[in-house]
Write a structure and sequence with these properties.
alpha+beta
């Protein structure tokens, strides 16, 4: 998993990237939808990324995510 430190908040990047196949799945994570390997159902659900990272989807973002996915 790639971690970055930035002086800007995640909302700034969300606004920049949403039109480019990125989606904010949690208040701590924005992902590139093209690199999702699989989606695992559950209360919140989570995605397995191409690099093997397992990332939980926030419950309040799950409906929007499934609409885009």
């Amino acid at each position: 998993m790639v971690q970055c430190i930035s002086p800007r908040h995640l909302g700034f990047y969300e606004d920049l990237l949403c039109a480019n196949n990125f989606f904010r799945i949690h208040n701590t994570s924005i992902i590139n939808l093209r690199f999702i390997k699989s989606y695992i159902k559950g209360k919140n659900g989570y995605v397995i990324m191409a690099n093997g990272a397992r990332l939980e989807i926030a419950q309040r973002r799950k409906g929007d995510f499934l609409g885009r996915f």
